[in-house]
Every structure is written in C-alpha cells, then in structure tokens.
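Hi everyone, sorry if this is the wrong subforum. Our group has a chain we'd like a structural model of before ordering constructs, and none of us has done structure prediction before. Sequence below.
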Amino acid sequence: MELSDFFWNASLDELKRGYIEEKDFFTCLLCGEKIEKGIVYSHDDTLYEAERFMRVHIKLTHQSVFDYLIGMDKKLTGLTDHQNELLQLFHQGKSDKEVQQEMGIGSTSTIRHHRFALKEKERQAKVFLTMMELLKDKDQHAPAFIAPHKTAKMVDERYAITKEEREKVILKYFTEEPNRSLKKFPPKEKQRLIVLREIAALIEGERIYDEKELNQMLNAIYEDHVMIRRYLIEYGFLDRKPDGSQYWLKK
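Answer:
Right subforum, don't worry. Here is the predicted structure as tokens:
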C-alpha cells in the first residue's frame, strides 16, 4: 500500500494525531517516517518511548498536523484562499476582533458570520462522509480509485484512476522486472500521470540527489531523462533548488 493510501484510508482520529499504529511501527501519515516499537529514542537529552517520539517527530518535521493539512493544495482541502486564511488565524487563537483587524474586512460580526459558515461546512462534511460510508455497503459497481498523491498541484479528471487502469498502463508502457524501464512516454495525460507516479515511487524519499545522480537514475528508466525530470516537477512529485543543483521527493 502506498503512503497516499495510508493517508486517505486513515480514520478521522488517526488523521488528527498524524500517525497510525502498525504491528512493529508507528507510521507518520504526513511523510511516511516509521518509528519502531520497543526502542527508546533520545532528543535534546530527553528519552522517549516510540509513540511519544512519533509526536515529537511530527512537531519537529511538520510543526503540527493542522499546519500540514492547511498547507495542502486547495483542490484537496476544498478550502478557498479566504477560508484557509481564516482557519489559520482561528487556529492561532486570535479573537474575532483580531482576525477582523488582521484581514481588514468588515467587522467582528462579519467574522462571526464566517465562523458560522465554516461550522455549516463541517456539518455538511459529516453528513456527506456518513452517506459515503453507508454507500460502500450498497454500491457494488464502484471502481477502486487510486488516491491522488498529496503533493499534486492540480487535482482534476486526470486523477480519476482506477487500479485496473493503472495495471493496464504499467503492462503497456513498462518492461518487466527486474530491469524495469519505460518503453515510451505516453501521449495521454492520465497515462502520463500513472507512469510518473511509478517512476516517483523509485526515488528514495529521504535522499537529496544532485543533478548528476538524478539524471543517472532516470536515464536507467528512460533515455529522455530531462523530459521525465521536468514532468516529475510539473506534476508535483519532485522539488528542487532554484539553480537545479539538488532534487528531492516532495512530501
């Protein structure tokens, strides 16, 4: 199961705390970091058991689960830029008057109206989630969709990818293991997304590549490594320094 599946399939309580518990590990839903059970971890001269250290990891790496989620693309959160800013200010503990002054809009009653609108959005979301859960038991024809990667820049119809579609594209465009390579780059957007996702899965998540290292890795997969690199960045899989000297997998 890919990290994005862990994230999207997590319960509300698991998402709120930012990690899930597996047999031997606690796994961060935000970056995939695994903390092994039964080991004592040290940070700033303090010792932590595994689950507590996972909470330390989230604070050090992501600030908080809220900060990570609010920073996700609005196509994934469903928030407008205006709502995003309001939620950030509310999360900082600011009063209605402070929020009004900082945003320079309306009056305190305007902010209270926005709070009410957000509460309505929460109620609607609960009803919708409940209906979707109930639908799972009845809809026998629903395809198994693959969740978008969390760093996707624009989630649209290209991301409506079923597991069956993914398997067909992999069989069509990739050679077989163990020396898997790309036969040709697909012409269609959805097929390209599937191919790029498979290539991104081969990039080490904790590693920073210099340009030569990344080019060598991508060249082993496809001869036009420059094009592949460009599309990996365009689709939000890779990030880089402005001068192109270093590349890393986005989280």
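For your construct planning: Strands lie at 19-21, 25-28, 34-36, 41-43, 46-48, 208-210, 238-240, 246-249. The longest strand covers residues 25-28.
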